[in-house]
Amino acid sequence: MTIAELLKAGERQLLDAGIGEAKTDAYLLLHYLTEKDRTFIFAHGDSEVSRADELTYREWLAKRSEHVPLQHIVGETEFMGLPFYSNPMALIPRIDTEFLVEEILKQLPDGAKVLDLCTGSGCILLSLMCYKKGIEGTASDISGRAIDLARMNEARLRRLGRLDGKITYCRCDLFEEIGGTYDLIVSNPPYIRTSEIETLMEEVRVYEPRIALDGSEDGLYFYREIAEKAGDHLNREGRIFLEIGAGQGRDVKGILESKGYRDVEIKRDYAGNERVASCLNR
Predict the structure, then answer these.
(1) Phi and psi at residue 179, to the nearest 5°
(2) For residues 253 and 267, what is the distance between their CA atoms, to the nearest angstrom?
């Protein structure tokens, strides 16, 4: 079977399975499998695919047809131009969170001390450490398996020569075992209302860890907890950056201001959605 025929068969199968981005996903699965880019695939569509690659591709299509996230099938994803391992132990790094990292990079100096709460895959902290020099990072998460994934991503980026700063890991619930003070505290905490989780797309509802989604009845539990305790772990001019859900800006701003934090800002992402809350220490 040729590469063009296999790609077309993949598109049809994913369309029949109700996958919204069937054409894109069929291509991406083939790209990850063959390590060939779009130009090669379309310029050399008559190239024969090995039987082994064809069988693997069809196995991957079957999984994607069951709405298994593409990133879990291929085992990785790209975030901030960097490669990250991805598995069901933590949320898949998403482009929405890139906006958070970009906003932080505008203000974060080299050599800063950074605490990343609910680190998950580690994509936020590790990206900051790749693009700024001498960052001293601490990554915390209540999930030991998420910490394991973050360590794997750290090791990968070090092998690639992209990372040279120091990282400390802490398996704990938010600030439970965190000591010292930091120049920046960042978090992409769970912020989905409990009642809304069952309405999410299957890729998220079934295959992403619920502990990383559920922000309690109103979706704001973790913002209240962080606002209550973050000041004790920030240097005098330290900053907080938080990813927030669409429509949560006013509530999160109110929570931070009620605890005395200064210069509270809510920033919208490129799609116009409220995405980042930031402030100075109280």
Answers:
(1) -120, 170
(2) 11
- Which pLDDT tens digit goes with each residue over 21-41? 999 999 999 999 999 888 998
State the Cα–Cα distance between residues 242 and 224, nearest whole angstrom. Answer: 12
**Residue-range domains of the chain with CATH:** 3-66 (1.10.8.10), 77-280 (3.40.50.150)
User: In sequence order, what are the residues at sequence separation of 6 or more whose Cβ sits closer than 8 angstroms to the Cβ of residue 249?
Assistant: 266, 274, 277
Give the closest residue to 146 by CA, choosing from 172, 115, 167, 165: 172
DSSP-derived secondary structure letter, 109: P
Going by their DSSP bridges, the two strands 113-117 and 182-187 should be labelled as: parallel
Task: Please state, in angstroms and rounded to a whole number, the distance separating the CA atoms of residues 193 and 204.
Answer: 14
Q: Could you report the per-residue pLDDT of 139-170, keeping only the tens digit for each?
A: 999 999 999 999 999 999 999 999 989 999 99
Q: Cβ atoms within 10 A of the Cβ of 168, count?
A: 12
Angstrom distance (rounded) from CA 142 to CA 178: 12
What is the CB neighbour count within 10 angstroms for residue 236? 8
Encode 58-85 in three state secondary structure.
Answer: HHHHHHHHCCCCHHHHHCEEEECCEEEE
Q: Is 158 helix (H, G, I), strand (E, B) or coil?
A: helix
Residue type, 78: E
Q: Residue 120: what pLDDT?
A: 98
Whether residue 273 contacts residue 246, with contact meaning beta carbons closer than 8 Å, is answered with yes
- The type of residue at 117 is L
Phi, psi (degrees; rounded to nearest 5) at 93: -60, 135
DSSP 160: T
For residues 163 and 175, give the distance between their C-alpha atoms in angstroms, rounded to a whole number.
Answer: 25
Cα 96 to Cα 94: distance, rounded to the nearest angstrom: 5
The closest of 202, 273, 204 to 243, measured between CA atoms, is: 273
Structure tokens at 133: 């020099």
